[in-house]
Design a protein that fits this description.
CATH superfamily of the largest domain: Winged helix-like DNA-binding domain superfamily/Winged helix DNA-binding domain
CATH architecture of the largest domain: Orthogonal Bundle
Radius of gyration: 18 Å
Number of strands: 2
Structural class: mainly alpha
Largest sheet: 2 strands, antiparallel
Number of helices: 5
Strand content: 5-15%
Shape: elongated
Helix content: 55-70%
Order of helices and strands: HHHEEHH
CATH topology of the largest domain: Arc Repressor Mutant, subunit A
Length: about 130
C-alpha cells in the first residue's frame, strides 16, 4: 500500500469533509446548504475550503457542465486509519516502548474489538521501527 503524507486539516475543513463523505459527490453549494443548517457561512468561505482540501489531496474535482462536482480521494474509513497510523508512528517515535506500555494499559477499558484493533496497530508500528 502506498503511504501518503497526511496534511493536517482544520476543524472547519473536517466538517466539510464529513459532508463530502456523506454525500459521496457534491458541489460547493451542496455543502454550503448543509453547513448553513447549523451556522451562517459564506459561499466564498466554503469555496476556499474546497480549494484547500483539493490542494491537500483530500478531494478531486470534475467538470460537469458549467459547475464542478467534488469527490473524496479517500474513504472516511481509510483516512481515519491513516490518521491513527500516523499518530501511532509519531507517538512511538517520540516516546518509545514505555509510552506503548502505558498506552496499552489505558486501552484496557475499551470494548474488546477496539482494544484488539489498537493493539494490532501498535504491534505493526513496533515491527516497522
Amino acid at each position: 500500500m502506498k503511504k501518503m503524507k497526511l496534511k493536517t486539516i482544520s476543524t472547519l475543513e473536517q466538517e466539510v469533509m464529513d459532508i463530502i463523505w456523506e454525500l459521496k459527490e457534491c458541489s460547493v453549494r451542496d455543502v454550503l446548504n448543509k453547513l448553513n443548517q447549523n451556522k451562517s457561512i459564506a459561499y466564498t468561505t466554503v469555496a476556499t475550503l474546497f480549494n484547500r482540501l483539493e490542494a491537500k489531496g483530500m478531494i478531486k474535482k470534475q467538470e460537469q457542465g458549467k459547475a464542478y462536482i467534488y469527490k473524496p480521494v479517500l474513504s472516511k474509513k481509510t483516512y481515519s486509519k491513516n490518521i491513527a497510523t500516523s499518530f501511532l508512528h509519531n507517538f512511538v517515535s517520540s516516546f518509545g516502548d514505555a509510552a506503548i506500555a502505558s498506552f496499552a494499559e489505558s486501552i484496557e477499558e475499551l470494548p474488546k474489538e477496539k482494544r484488539e484493533y489498537f493493539l494490532k496497530l501498535l504491534e505493526h508500528e513496533a515491527d516497522t521501527k
